[in-house]
Amino acid sequence: MKTTETPAPLPAESGAPITKTDVRPPPVKEKKEGTVLNVFSHGVLVIWAFMVVMPLLWAVMTSFKDDRSIFSSPWSLPDSLHFDNWSRAWTQANMSDYFLNTVLVVGGSLIGTLVLGSMAAYVLARFDFPGNRFIYFLFIGGMSFPIMLALVPLFYVVNNMGLLNTIHGLILVYIAYSLPFTVFFLAAFFRTLPTSIAEAAFVDGASHSRTFFQIMLPMAKPGLISVGIFNFLGQWNQYMLPTVLNTDPDKRVLTQGLVQLAVSQGYKGDWSGLFAGLVMAMLPVLAAYIVFQRQVVQGLTAGALK
Amino acid sequence: MQHGKYRFIVGFLALPLGLYALFVVWPFIQSIYYSFTDWTGLSPEFKMVGFDNYSRMLDDDIFWKSLQHSLLFALLLPVVTIGLALFFAFMINVGGRKRKNGPVITGVRGSSFYKIVYFFPQVLSIAIVALLFAFAYNPDSGALNSLLRGIGLDDVQPLWLGDPDLALWAVMAVLVWSTVGFFVVLFSAGMASIPAEMYEAALLDGANRVTTFFRVTLPLLWDTVQSGWVYMGILALGAESFAVVQIMTTGPGGPDYSTTVMVLYVYQKAFRDGQAAYATTIGVALLVVTLAFAAVVMRLGRRERLEY
User: Fold this and answer.
1) Tell me, what's the ipTM?
2) pLDDT level of residue B198 (50, 70, 90 thresholds)
3) What residues of chain B lie within 8 A of the CB of A12, using their CB?
4) Which residues, numbered 264 to 303 in chain B, qualify as contacts with chain A under a Cβ-Cβ cut-off of 8 Å?
5) How the protein sits in the membrane (chain B) (predicted)?
């Protein structure tokens, strides 16, 4: 390659005139390069796919085995499907309680995050008032700070308010920590919406809040869905906040409950039940991802792209 | 649109801003203040001690270990993860070669399948992923060692998480496993917006795939790579590394503190050892490291912006 004296072709210069003609690179060269690289790169792609899927399949497989064969032959197929692992995990290992707690916490905080986040984002994006920029940067500044720093005093703030080990306390904290990204994302979204419709509604006598709830919010639906999925996954998978703020065994959320279960398993030894619980916690999000694949990807990548 | 404007603004901002100030901003400010006290967190009494916590921190061997590990996480993990993800994303989006009557630029066969599967770990909780791999790494009955036995490597039976020299790498591998898919999808989105004419021009000039990648794709994708880099570094310093280290390694913190990272050390000092003030001091150090990391990456990554 003689790369030194020729700088990389600037696309804008070399791109335009050539596109019309149907050009192919010399066929001989293409073939030679193709085979070697193809085998190699396909191989790597397949291996990585295998490495992603195998641990998950292994977990599903193990959740149907009895304890003895888990230890004696980790990779063999289960001799028969032990569905009792699943029912034991659901009832005796409290997975049903953890599930319910998680649904309550995530449901409450998701609604709260979307309502409060869109209210703040709308005001910050569409109204000019003193302090607007300051409040906006105060919100988005929260995206880059390590949560752990605030966690120690936060524990005592929550404790003093009597909200420690409560579902609603956890909901309020989840909302507060979801606001930076939500406000950031939705403010950008509200700025792209046309102003004329809102103005027309206002001239027709609708109040500001009515304009917001009946006109702007429905128009922002695609943005709400993206940011909603982002927050759903984040809050469903949250581990650090409940670990610190929620130490009552009855109030545990799924991630926390499973980790606690694994720690105490050292003494009880119901490994098959534990694997069943693990798979139970994985399946809902994997299923949701496969169904809402496009929205999930949009919601998650929007966060890092902008 | 002036009528009742300020009442509306205050009404709409009060609740979100109040919650945010109470649970996020106020604790942040407090933590910096507490780092200058001798507060234990157990009793409400404390007094100002100036920079005592900071000088104690500089003499704390475990702090230095955790700082070292955190820096390793922040520097090495993004390199490996983003490198892998760039390769995968390039193969998936550009790596294919022309099939009859197809578009000139295309991914390898099965690319949409890869994109879906690679993303799987990203939707799982890092806590669940950590648990799963803690089992897989189990030296006696875990999937990894029995796989090694299965292919005849009976002598190679590492302790993985129990081996001080290996534990940190085993933990890092899990973070790579769980985040690569996200960046594949992120970079795919970036690559999709690069006009096909540029690739066609490069092909016409006789560029092979390696040249195409370094001369066309990477420069045009640079902004996305850079923000991905910062994002991954913050993840590796923060919540994700807390979960994997706390859940997976024995101790937790590994044999002889071989896997302790700064976030975990903050947590242990505050909630295990009853040294809340000292914990916030380490937290301030973590904040400094995070901001410095972001600043360095932004600075090093600055390039002339390419318009297309």
Assistant:
1) 0.85
2) confident
3) 307-308
4) 266-267, 270-271, 276, 279-280, 283-284, 286-287, 290-291, 294
5) Multi-pass membrane protein
pLDDT score of A254 more than 80: yes
Q: How far apart are CA B168 and CA B170, in angstroms?
A: 5
Mutate to test the interface with A, among B33, B90, B113, B132 (most CBs of A within 10 A): B132
Mean pLDDT of B206-216: 84
Choosing among 2.40.10.120, 1.10.3720.10, 3.40.50.11260, 2.40.50.140, the CATH entry for B56-300 is 1.10.3720.10
Instruction: Provide the token pair at A123.
Output: 């005001």
pLDDT tens figures, B76-128 = 999 999 999 999 998 888 876 655 555 666 777 778 888 889 999 988 999 99
Q: Nearest residue of B to residue A74 by CA position?
A: B143
Q: Report the run of H or E that residue A223 belongs to, with start and end.
A: helix A221-236
Residue A78 structure tokens = 């289960």
Contact A300 B122 (CB under 8 A): yes
CA dihedral B60, B66, B67, B72 (to 10 degrees): 150
- CATH 1.10.3720.10 placement within chain B: 56-300
Asked if residue B121 has a cis previous peptide bond (ω within 30° of 0), the answer is no
Instruction: Give the CA count within 13 Å in the CB-facing half-sphere of B112.
Output: 3
Contact assessment for residue B134 and residue A278, using Cβ atoms and an 8 Å cutoff: no
Q: What is the pLDDT of residue B79?
A: 93
Separation between Cα atoms, residue B276 and residue B267, nearest integer Å: 9
pLDDT digits (tens, 9 = 90+) for B268-296: 998 889 899 999 999 999 999 988 998 88
